[in-house]
Write a structure and sequence with these properties.
With 662 residues, this protein is of the alpha/beta class. The protein is built from 25 helices and 17 strands.
């Protein structure tokens, strides 16, 4: 006969004590007007143990109204819940802090998964992040839902999570995995159908015990309570936020109330997107969708796509960076967060986390069958390299010091200074670099039938300091003959403009070919060239009398350009992966460029206001292309009329760009 273990006398006494604790708490709450933190904590331990009577549990949760939830009681209840959680004890190096970015949920809004995305960016910027979260309750997609949709394994344990975080900086702690005891209260909560103290405990019960936390709450009244609880728990720094609209995160639409804990001191303030150097957007622009669509938005942000959702993520990530002490102020924190995305680090953290969360648990992670799609920039560069290798094998030619036209290269740095005086015709604050291009990958055909010689003469006689000629044939439909024709047409003018070879230079041959055909400078794109090759190409250019224009689009690229010794740097405002133009790029990166290095703003320049904006951040020159190339009436068919009308409009546009300030 099978024996039955009915337990010892001490087991029954302990069970009775636990039951008594729950009854005592209910009695104190209903008859004495409140219970002590110790009584509340013991009552929750009973519930978490699975021995709580459902009726008593419901009575306790009903009686423990919000007005009775003091910081001490909430702290005690949160501690009891953590005591029953699975352990997670990450090992941190000296001076490292453990961070969590999390919200209570329940704010009534359904926004994009900003805290999850911001946590990835935070890790990419140097923080150690163990994010505590769950599936969606009221919204369409919770943090667990979106990470699972992207292939992450949510069921890692504490040791596995610590290992993942150690390797990539981030891991997700799935609440349902780490708080199995919550199943004992789930039925009661569903039956009650109202908010209870458990609705505010999630962010306070991270089993890893973060030392720094950015937390959103669904009610403004919870802000002071939450920050007091965080102080009592021993956190070093924390911020609790609730937006004016009611979001449990920093709002991209306007003001957010904030309660800040720093070194034991609590302060209150209001923050808005402009404090972080970011624009405001309406909340409908950051609305949440089902997991598959939110996943795509998440991935687009990791790839650098600008827009309201990107700004929403930058806002929350930069705030977390500041709270973690990884940036001295909000705006510098925003730049750090932005660089984490634009450099590709955030995308790598996400990819590494998804892979590690599987492999650490012994789950085979499938290799990507589809190769990562190359950006159009690298596609063009690879094509140009193949073409140039074939051409150089057929038509080799020796190093030259002057071009075959017999004219030495014009010093572009001097020409820009002269150009700012407008050759005595159109004086202005910056020099104009006017571009000739027939087409582009992002815009398609722009001005296929352009007469490059006439266009060049219009530019030159209207005060342009540099004429940029797109010579790439497949995507931009240009040729090296265009560059030679422009040089021949302008070289005899009084104080002629410099002629720039704008191509995807990946081989020394292209620099020699450019000089042979009259180029005064060439474009070198940093993202295509390792530091040593960039240094070599700059040296080759200078040996031919040309000072190259070195193009950058990110902070790390500016650092590379300066390390290579660039004296003329162009900031491309266009993201060549997404083709999105961000006119603030030049202003952000200009701060890194010393005064002795000439700065040019490239892409997206259409108005006088654009010119003045770039002048204000230190630009000595601006490049205008599409605006000038489209300055014609496409309905006019007569060639002579097109040229006449185009000439008139182009001159007006140049004057608009270069007209002196009032």
């Amino acid at each position: 006969q099978k024996s039955i273990n009915i337990g010892s006398k001490s087991d029954h006494l302990r069970a009775g004590a636990r039951m008594s604790a729950l009854k005592t708490a209910v009695k104190q709450l209903t008859e004495a007007g409140g219970c002590t933190p110790e009584e509340a904590g013991e009552a929750v331990k009973e519930i978490m143990s699975g021995e709580g009577n459902p009726l008593l549990t419901a009575s306790f949760l009903t009686a423990l109204r919000w007005d009775k939830c003091t910081p001490e009681i909430v702290s005690a209840v949160a501690k009891s819940m953590r005591d029953y959680a699975l352990p997670c004890k990450p090992e941190l190096k000296k001076d490292e802090v453990l961070v969590d970015v999390v919200g209570t949920g329940g704010d009534g809004f359904d926004t994009f998964n900003v805290s999850t995305c911001a946590s990835i960016v935070l890790a990419a910027a140097g923080a150690k992040v163990l994010k505590h979260g769950n599936r969606s309750n009221a919204s369409k997609c919770g943090s667990a839902d979106i990470l699972e949709a992207m292939g992450a394994n949510l069921m890692v344990d504490g040791a596995q999570a610590s290992k993942v975080m150690e390797e990539c900086g981030f891991c997700f702690l799935f609440a349902q995995k780490f708080h199995p005891s919550m199943k004992h209260v789930a039925k009661v909560r569903r039956a009650m159908g109202v908010r209870t103290i458990f609705n505010i405990l999630g962010p306070l019960t991270n089993p890893a015990r973060p030392t720094v936390q950015l937390t959103g709450v669904f009610s403004k009244n919870l802000g002071p309570l939450y920050i007091q609880v965080m102080k009592a728990s021993g956190m070093k720094r924390a911020m609790v936020v609730h937006s004016k609209e009611g979001l449990d995160e920093l709002s991209i639409a306007g003001p957010t109330y904030a309660w800040i804990l720093d070194d034991g001191k609590i302060t209150e303030k209001t923050v808005s997107p402009p404090d972080f150097g970011l624009p405001c957007h309406s909340l409908d622009k950051v609305a949440g969708k089902e997991p598959t669509k939110n996943m795509r938005t998440f991935q687009e942000i990791m790839e650098g796509k600008k827009g309201p959702c990107m700004d929403f993520v930058l806002l929350n990530a930069s705030c977390a960076l500041w709270v973690a002490g990884l940036a001295p102020d909000f705006k510098q924190a925003t730049e750090k967060a932005r660089n984490a995305i634009e450099s590709g680090k955030a995308k790598k953290v996400l990819e590494d986390y998804i892979k590690l969360s599987n492999t650490v648990a012994g789950i085979a992670y499938p290799k990507q069958e589809k190769k990562e799609e190359k950006s159009i920039l690298h596609t063009i560069a690879d094509h140009r390299l193949a073409v140039v290798k074939d051409l150089s094998a057929k038509v080799p030619f020796p190093m030259v010091t002057v071009n075959s036209l017999g004219t030495p290269a014009i010093n572009v740095l001097n020409r820009i200074e002269v150009g700012k005086m407008g050759r005595g015709k159109i004086p202005d604050i910056v020099a104009l670099m006017a571009e000739i291009k027939r087409a582009s990958p992002s815009k398609g055909d722009i001005n296929i039938g352009v007469d490059v010689v006439r266009q060049a003469l219009i530019y030159a006689k209207s005060g342009a300091s540099v004429i940029s000629v797109l010579t790439e044939p497949k995507w931009f439909k240009g040729t090296i003959k265009d560059l030679r024709a422009v040089k021949e047409a302008t070289m005899t003018l009084e104080n002629p403009p410099c002629v720039l070879l704008k191509d995807f230079v990946v081989d020394e041959y292209q620099i020699l070919e450019a000089r042979m055909n009259g180029a005064d400078l060439v474009l070198l794109i940093v993202t295509l060239l390792p530091l040593n090759k960039l240094k070599h190409f700059i040296h080759v250019s200078r040996s031919l009398g040309m000072e190259p224009l070195v193009e950058c689009a990110r902070e790390d690229e500016v650092k590379t350009a300066l390390a290579a010794g660039a004296k003329f740097i162009g900031i491309n405002n266009r993201n060549l992966k997404t083709f999105h133009v961000d006119m603030d790029t030049t202003g952000r990166l200009a701060k890194m460029i010393p005064k002795e290095v000439k700065l040019a703003a490239l892409s997206g320049i259409k108005t006088r206001a654009d010119v003045e904006k770039f002048y204000d951040v230190g630009a000595a020159a601006v490049l205008v292309g599409e605006t000038l190339m489209r300055a014609k009436d496409p309905a006019v068919r007569n060639k002579k009329t097109i040229i006449k009308l185009k000439k008139k409009k182009n001159i007006n546009l140049i004057k608009t760009s270069l007209h002196p300030r009032p």
